[in-house]
Every structure is written in C-alpha cells, then in structure tokens.
C-alpha cells in the first residue's frame, strides 16, 4: 500500500493567507526553518495506479499538479483518482470537490450527515450524478471501497470520533455543536495485509478510540494546535481548540499524553494550524515531539506499507 501526503496543514494552509503571526510571517520571509504546507489530504493506493483521496482539499488542483502519480495518464480526459472519502463536512475537507466537477467519473463516499450537507447546497450539484456516484458510509463495519470501474483493493473501516459540526452549519446546530455521532469520522485503511489510521480531526480521546488504535502500525492524528488557547494567546482568534473540535497536542489532556501508553507504531501529526510552533523545525515544541516519538507531516511525504 502506498500513502502520499498531499497536504498537511489545517484550514487555510501554512502560511494562512491573512495570518501575520510569527510562524506565518517567518515562513514567508524565510527567517524560520519551516516549510509551507497545503490543506490536509492523503492519497492512498493498493496498486500504484488507482487512487483513493482521503478528503478533497481546497488546494486540490495544486496538490495534483505537485504529484505526478495523479496526472492524467490515458486519453484526452483521465484521472487516476477513482474515489474520494470524506471524514467530515468541513470546508477544508470538501471544497476541493468543486475542482473535480469536470465530468470526471469517480465515487464519493461520506457519512449521511455529510452527504445531506452537500445535497442541501446547490453548488455541489456541479458534481453531476452521471459522473459522481455518492455512497453513504456505514460506521464501524469494514467494507471494500470501490470507484468508478470497480474495487480499488482497499478495505475501509470508518468510525465515529468526537468532533464538531462544520463551521457553516453551527447556526443550525443550537447548543449541540458536536452534531450527529457520525459527523466526524476516523478511518482505518487496509490493503495487502497492511493497515493504518487517519484521524485529522478529533476533540477527545475516548476508550473506544484507544481500543481501535491499540497496535496500529501507523497513525495520522489531529495536530491542529499545540495548546488549547493558542489562538487566544497569539492574538489571532478567540476560540479554543476544544471549541473548534480539536484536541491540543500538549497538556495533561493532550495528544502526546493520550498516546503515551498506547502501543502504536509510527505516529504522525497532520492538519497542523498556521499558528502551531511545531511547524518550526528547530523549535522546543518540535524537539519535545520528537522526544515523545512523534513526527509532523509534510506535503509530499510518502510511506509504503
């Protein structure tokens, strides 16, 4: 199984277009050891020819241009991308679908609340049902994922994780911003005897999630913020990580602590916000992560399982 990180940043990318915080300013000017990143998405293939996208980033076109395995290969119109699966309905997970509207056949997989949100917005009607088959994902049971033209050799298990309704639906959610149980999904992808987990958004570690991750050879996990109050202390926002549906990395309830006694293999943070100091390669926070056995995803990172 081949895994390619198309994008590794949170919404808006790194640097975010209107952010002048020290991290964003430093990567623009070259004064910090940090790499620009596009918004989070993975491409996965069992055979190296037909690919499944994990979320459709707003930076989809840029990501395809940067990865030759996703270029058209055959005829005047073609794409190796056979299917897309969505972990939530957030803008940074679905906006790339609008760049895939060119009558190209592929299959779209998502939980019912996400499919309903797409169906309620007429702009997504640009994805004609004649080209794009929409399939509801049933959580907790493994299923062979298919694209237009048949199976991809990949088995997916989708499972609910604590999260939040998309930003554009908060006004309809009242006091229950967590939304439906399958509003936010984690994924286990398996092929040819290998498997890994992809969880780009998670509000809390639960006993159920711990049990799923126990023994996983590879985990991509929500790395949005270093501290829960990061946006507030940097002066760029008023929301905490919890309010946005994300665990922080540091702290007694953070990701590093939650994984400290979990038996997992390689651990990689993804969906990293533009304010997060772990993006700075020689920062104390990055060193602390490495000491704890964590990596930070980069665009173009490739893993073979």
UniProtKB/TrEMBL annotation:
Domain of life of the native organism: Bacteria
GO biological process: pyrroloquinoline quinone biosynthetic process
Xref: HAMAP family: PQQ_syn_PqqB (MF_00653)
UniProt entry tagged with the keyword Transport: yes
Described function: May be involved in the transport of PQQ or its precursor to the periplasm.
Protein name: Coenzyme PQQ synthesis protein B
UniProt keyword annotation of Electron transport present: no
Pathway info: Cofactor biosynthesis; pyrroloquinoline quinone biosynthesis
Sorted UniProt keywords: PQQ biosynthesis, Transport
Annotated source species: Inquilinus limosus
Organism lineage string: Bacteria, Pseudomonadati, Pseudomonadota, Alphaproteobacteria, Rhodospirillales
Gene: pqqB
Metallo-beta-lactamase domain: residues covered: 50-271
InterPro entries the record matches: Metallo-B-lactamas, PQQ_synth_PqqB, RibonucZ/Hydroxyglut_hydro
Family label: Belongs to the PqqB family.
